[in-house]
C-alpha cells in the first residue's frame, strides 16, 4: 500500500512538471503574440528610427482649452489629413489636462498643412501648432549647465556640518549672516 502511494506521488509530480512547462510555453506564446500585435499596430515602436519617423508625422498643439476632447481636436485638424492618434497630456497626480496635445497623422505631408493652422481659434483660444520635435536621449532643454553636485553657493545642505536647508542658528545679538530675514526668532529644534 505504501508503494502505491509513493508511485501515485511520483506520477503527480511528473504531471505537475508537464503542467508548468505547458504554462510557460503558453505564456511565452501569449507575450510574443501580444508584442507582435502592438508592433504591427504601430503602438509599440521598437527602434529610435521608428520613433523619429512617427515624430515626423506628428504635431504639437499648445494652448489647448482644458475642456477640449480628442474628438474635437480631431475634427479641428481633420482637413489636414487622416489622423492616426490624438494624445492630450494630463497631470499624473490630478488627472487634469495640461493644456497641450500631440496629433499623429498617417502621412508626413499632413504636418505642413496642420502647421498652417497655427494661431487658429479652437474653443475660443488661439492654439500654437508646431511640428513635433524628437527627444534625444541625454539632451535636456532645461539643463542650465554647471556642476549639479553637492557643493552649491547657497541653499541646500551646508558643507561644514550645518543645518539642513542651509539655515544657521541665530547668534546672540543682531549680527546676521546670509538670509537672516527668512530665519524665525525661535528655533525649537
TrEMBL record:
Indicate the segments forming the RRM domain, all copies: 57-134
Q: Name one GO biological process term.
A: nuclear-transcribed mRNA catabolic process, deadenylation-dependent decay
**Where primarily located?**
cytoplasm
Q: Could you list the residue ranges forming a coiled coil in this record?
A: 2-32
Per UniProt, the keywords (alphabetical) are: Coiled coil, Cytoplasm, RNA-binding
List the GO cellular component terms.
cytoplasm; nucleus
Localization recorded for this chain is: Cytoplasm
Q: Which GO terms describe its molecular function?
A: poly(A) binding
Taxonomic superkingdom: Eukaryota
Keyword Coiled coil found: yes
> Which PANTHER family has this protein been placed in?
EMBRYONIC POLYADENYLATE-BINDING PROTEIN 2, EUKARYOTIC TRANSLATION INITIATION FACTOR 4B/4H
The name of this protein is PABP2 protein
The taxonomic lineage of its organism, from the top, reads: Eukaryota, Metazoa, Chordata, Craniata, Vertebrata
Amino acid at each position: 500500500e505504501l508503494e502505491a502511494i509513493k508511485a501515485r506521488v511520483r506520477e503527480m509530480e511528473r504531471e505537475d512538471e508537464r503542467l508548468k512547462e505547458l504554462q510557460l510555453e503558453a505564456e511565452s506564446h501569449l507575450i510574443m503574440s501580444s508584442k507582435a500585435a502592438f508592433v504591427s499596430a504601430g503602438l509599440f515602436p521598437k527602434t529610435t528610427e521608428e520613433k523619429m519617423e512617427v515624430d515626423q508625422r506628428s504635431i504639437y498643439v499648445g494652448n489647448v482649452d482644458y475642456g477640449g476632447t480628442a474628438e474635437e481636436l480631431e475634427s479641428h485638424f481633420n482637413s489636414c489629413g487622416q489622423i492616426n492618434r490624438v494624445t492630450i497630456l494630463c497631470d499624473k497626480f490630478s488627472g487634469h489636462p495640461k493644456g497641450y496635445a500631440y496629433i499623429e497623422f498617417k502621412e508626413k505631408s499632413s504636418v505642413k498643412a496642420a502647421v498652417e493652422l497655427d494661431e487658429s481659434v479652437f474653443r475660443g483660444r488661439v492654439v500654437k501648432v508646431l511640428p513635433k520635435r524628437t527627444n534625444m536621449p541625454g539632451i535636456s532643454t532645461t539643463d542650465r549647465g554647471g556642476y549639479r553636485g553637492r557643493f552649491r553657493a547657497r541653499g541646500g545642505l551646508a558643507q561644514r556640518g550645518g543645518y539642513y536647508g542651509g539655515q544657521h542658528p541665530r547668534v546672540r545679538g543682531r549680527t546676521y549672516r546670509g538670509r537672516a530675514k527668512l530665519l524665525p526668532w525661535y528655533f525649537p529644534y
